[in-house]
Amino acid sequence: MKENKLPEFESLEKLVEFFDTHDMGEYDLPEVHFEVTTRKKPMFLVSVDKELMKKLAEVAQSQHTSTEELINSWLEERVAKAA
Fold it and tell me: What is the DSSP letter of 58?
């Protein structure tokens, strides 16, 4: 038999603790819908020196962009010059 209502929680930690010991299937939770998108381009992993990565992350943050976007744009510029 399902419980009618999920209790109120003071914090996300309390909610997590609760469901560590309770089954979500015992509660009448609302149905949710969401879309999942996947990358259309393949992604490749490249090893980067730890200290260099820290510097790249700092530069990216100062430019209000992600480290991934910064590295990709720099690589595109270098490849264009080399071609």
Answer: H
Q: 52 pLDDT band (50/70/90 cuts)? A: very high
pTM: 0.51
Confidence of residue 59 (pLDDT cuts 50, 70, 90): very high
Contact 15, 9 (CB under 8 A): yes
Q: How many residues does the chain have?
A: 83
> Do residues 58 and 28 share a domain?
no
> What integer pLDDT is reported at residue 4 of this predicted model?
64
Domain with 17, as residue range(s), is 1-34
Are 22 and 46 within one domain? no
Q: What is the rounded CA–CA span in Å between residue 40 and residue 3?
A: 42
In contact, 27 and 2? CB cutoff 8 Å: yes
**Distance from chain centroid for Cα 79:** 29
